[in-house]
Amino acid sequence: MRGAVLLAAAMTLYAADARLVSLRVAPEKRTLEGAGSHQRLIALGRFDDASERDLTDQARWTVSDERVARAGADGVLRAAGDGQVTVTAAVEGLRAQAHFEVRGVRDARPFEFARDIGGIFTRKGCNGAACHGGVKGRGGFKLSAGALYPKDDYEWIVKGGAYQVLTAEVKGPRVPRIDLAHPEKSLLLLKPTASVPHGGGRRFRVDSPEYRAILAWIRQGAPFGPEPTADNRVLRLEVYPPVVTLERGQTHRLLVTAHFADGRAEDFSDQALYAANDKDVAAVGEDGIVHAQRLGETAILVRAAGQAAGATVGVIGAAMAQYPNVERNNFIDDFIFDKLRRFRIAPSPPAGDGEFLRRVCLDLAGTLPPPERVREFLQSRDRNKREKLIDTLIGSPEFVDYWTYRFDDVFRVAVFANGIQPKWSEMYAEWVRQSIAGNKPYDRMAWERLAAQGYDGPSRHYLPYDVIGPPGETMAEEVRVFFGRRLDCAQCHNHPYETWSQDQFWGMAAFFGRMFKMGDTGGEYVIFDHPLDEDMGNGDVNGSLKMYHPRTKQELAPTLLDGRVVRASARENPRRALADWMVRHPYFAEAAVNRMWSYFFGRGLVDPVDDFRSTNPPTHPELLARLAEDFRTHHHDLRRLMRLIVTSRTYQTSGQPALNNRDDRTNYSHAQPRPLDAEVLLDAICDVTGVPETFSTAVSDTAKPAGQAPPGTRAIQLRQPDLYYSRFLELYGRPNRLTVPERSGKANLGEALHMVAGPTYNQKLSAPSGRLQRLLKAGKSNAEIIDEFYLAAYARLPEREERVALEEAIARQPDREAALKDFVWALLSSREFAENH
Amino acid sequence: MGLKRSGGLCALALAAAFGAAPKKSAEPQLSSIYPAAAQRESAFEAEIRGAELDGARAVVFQDTGLEARVLSAGADLAHVRIAVAPDARQGRHEFRVVTPRGVTNKLALDVVAEPVVDEKQAGETLRRFPLVINGRLAQPGESDAYWIEVAANQTLTFEAGAAEAKFDPELVLYEPSGSWFDPHRLNRIGFNDEPLYFPGLSTGARLVQHFARGGRYCVQVQGFSGQGGPDFAYHLRISPGVTPAPVLHPPLKPAWEERQFTRPLERDRLADLARRGGTPGNAAPPEVFHAAAEDAPEIPWMAAPGMVEGRITHPGEAHAIRLRVNQAEDLAIEIETPGATLPRFNPVVRLMEPGGREMATDVYTKLNNNGLYMMKMIEAKTTVSLRAPGEYRMQIRDITTDCAGDDFLYRVLVRPQIPHVGKVEVEEDHVNLEAGASRPVNVRIDREEGFSDYVAMAVEGLPPGVTAVPALENPPEKPPLPNGGKLERYVAREQSLAVMLVAAPDAPLTTVPARARVVVRVVHGGQLQPPIAEEEIPVMVIARRPS
User: Fold this and answer.
1) CB of A710 within 8 Å of any CB in chain B?
2) Residue B10 and residue A519: Cβ atoms within 8 Å?
3) B123, B80 in Cβ contact below 8 A?
4) The complex's ipTM?
5) The CATH number of domain A21-108, selected from 1.25.40.20, 3.40.50.620, 2.60.40.10, 3.40.50.2300
6) Where among B389, B418, B447 does a domain terminate?
7) E strand map for B224-299
8) Option in B2, B197, B378 nearest A518 (CB)
9) Where does CATH 2.60.40.10 sit in chain A?
10) Which tens digits make up the pLDDT trace of A611-654?
């Protein structure tokens, strides 16, 4: 079977020139507002090899009414008068249209410092992280990253002075960077044109449009323009297309649209800064045109108006004449296989029954299928056996154990992380377990954890060691867990690469600033939010619960990331409002589905899963959005999400690479092997050998054990990693959950030594009650024993060659039992066993 | 390295949670009894474990209805035969063992009305309830499983109690429904460690289960974090229906309790307080008032002394009442939580002057020793001196804005301060005196609300040859915290009295403990007043141990 598939892949021929089959224009519809408004157009042609290419340069552009707008050969539509207009692109006899409304062409847009001057700094890289937009600025001159804070930028330019990170005080004398009396002599022009020495070199030439714009502004007295309003803020950027596939040497325009708070959308393609993550794969010019260089995939980052967005560019090989038809089980497959087809990567065939069985059992239940179940599944002719198995596994007792353990990890259930009280971590763990067992909607779980007060299970997580953590750290942890974002950098300064500002960080931290614990001696702490209008005894000790911005020293109010201040009443728990907002925010669902996705594929659509940022874009943004939407509309049902994932053809793809997908690591063309987590691996060893593990509360060098988990306790059932000691689990990467629970699947020397000489392997192989001894006592032949262990460890029978070789090797040994132990040891030490694939 | 440290710290955390292992003592000491529960009108052999039990000659029960005979005694194990009378009181019966080295600490045996079986007899499927099973988790990690058979729609209550304070049993209920992976797997359908973990509350487990399906189920008793050992005895009670839920209140001593939220503020409290101050207690009961919702258009009035009663039913609810004070007055505010109490209901009571400034609160804040760290506690009593007449406003609510319930009941007594002796505590549980030696008996008393008279103490009923002489203990050297936060408003002035019990070298040895009584009296107006506290402690005179 496997050979036939490879042969079919090998027979795939690469196609000759593709034929254009359809044409479309992007955007299809838009409103242009104001004098000088314009819109970049892209003519996109679809070819019979399923590729889509930018044909803007080849297109002939016409408009229905030149009194309304005119289209240039460069594909830019420029407004001329109010009215409706249809634009037509024509290529090789095909035509496509787009429709525009033009309004207010006589209304000149008022000058805006942020857009007209700040935009130049962004486009020319002046306010980038490596230059004046860095934490401290550069050369004594500070600009906000991406012109996020135009008022600050204006002050540094017009009034001068040097920025300081820890205080709002200005350092040094204030010397303006513009000269109103002699505008041409302004530093703001001399430096970027390299007329005087400039560490950043020349950013634009004298008499360039940028130079002229800045000069004109200074000559007009350097106004700031109207104050920025909430409506006039750019909320987000959209880059189109989000995924671009190109053959080497081809080019593609990007279309950048700014979405304003008042609902307007405006073309910002010529006001954005473009940068490629990997310039060797694709370069991008100032004009936003991508040039494909060599095979590979890279992200193009786009910045404008303080916001950032990105697009994925894949540089692909030649087209295939016969791209395989792949069965699709649900919408996940549409997104995955569409992209694979665009990238001209053939997916591997579906996993065989044994491969699927082992994978899905480990992923849904953290448990290997027992040999008798493997035989049963392999022999079954039921066409729906996979769906039936999935439905059996989801919600099974092992599923509850396994996903409790998974969320114990995410939520950091540990003695030291929960007040150094084993009883508290037990309360917290029990809350996690009840939530998983009852399939509590994930937004409810998150809400209960975020808003926790009093003395219940989730409130215990607010007591790392036994104190209420600093508000900033506490907030950053919640945002990491539920939004998948890392705001930590913004604690000390505006985030140098992202749009997170120090104001946002501390505004969010203020939600946690009133948290207090009631109690004196430990063991009794009740969490509450301190009222703002009363001392609660603090008058005696002159205490104050106000939070202040560390740089500006301004008093902080709880402020959501979108800038809305939450006016909680003096006695209200402000975290309730935060929780309400967070679980409804798009970040919440996308972070949740991304985390869940990573459990089934070994990487997130955004990876690492807790690191969503513009410089780390998703590999499949539309799939991520669709999964998040689906999760939201189905009541944040984790089980439904898991079922959706594991029933997809994508999940059920074989781990065997096909001819042209061997190097693919990110597009799910074939299943990637994933090391088993320490707990799952230990349980798997116990299952295969038939010898359970014993877990003690004592460390290895303590003579007398203080306590012992009940016999038969599995590693995934252990709740607090710092309660039960296990040399094996520590070696294989069990995190202690005191900090962000990072698991590393990388092998280390300690693991190798433990495999050879450690008790986990050796004692279990020799245990009289083990599987091997039982089979020997039952008089089983070597072939039967080999089969049994293959089924238990790999969920498959040995290939004929494997069986023959093993039988011969065992027969050669004088001591049969020792030889069989060596065989089982080899099985347990193999990558095939230690990985999920 | 990090791991070892982590494990070591964790061991400390565990020790803190369960209490460190008792030190080896030369005193005879009891640690457990097995079985821990006995049915009325039964006789059985029991194992009593402890230390220095060699030659134990008697078991002394506090109450009537139980008798015991020592069958054999080694250093750490005594076998006794216990007979429970048909009319023995149901509940805990405390006992001590008398040995040549003196009398031991107390331990308790539970007398129950239900049939009692031993774990060894409970191997078969259990079908008839109520039933009490005596068991023991003899090894770390041990768990005892009992199979039961129930009818469809039957409800059972399971309660596991420990015979020993540091043993914390857990209950797990399984159904034998198997799984795809393991057809014999027992699947958890119920779990309880304790109804509420909080210092002072029992760590016994309680589980109520409604069985929709009839059939066999397995109930398992295990120790928290795998505890086990010879002292880890328990009794598992299985009762039909739903038995009354335990009241989650810390245990109150039968003697006077002043600063516990759950002590009852009786109608004659003012009289009781006066008596404890050495004056005739004939004050009238305080009038009862009810506060209104804080935002109600009309806030009711109260006067001191007066009792405010109410309940916080909805999250964030706050109640208010106005207090009219006609002259400068020293007031005490006492709070009782008859229903839910800490940590579920944490009542905050604040008294504010007309301008809204807080004059008094039951929230006590102090700095920690690092001088930076505020600690807040709520106290069951606070005092305040109102320097001017006026109309004050009192607010009552929960400390959280999310917790409330029908059982969030409060009673707040506002009354004039009455100088009196508060809690009296005798530290020693029992005294074993070698002939010619001496041992102190320490009594701690709380001076409340400015009580300044003498307090006299006597030890009565001592065995022949034993005398009591006054003694002074070394005062603590530890300075008070840098800022106690008006400590005196929230904490009584604590004072320690001591008498030294001295056995003459020729004092006759005792074979049964003498029931000595520590008696505390107030001296007021030059008169020794009737006792305000009496506590009995067993005292024995024992032979001097050869050096």
Assistant:
1) yes
2) no
3) no
4) 0.91
5) 2.60.40.10
6) B418
7) 233-240, 287-290, 292-293
8) B378
9) 21-108
10) 998 878 899 999 999 999 999 999 999 999 999 999 999 999 99
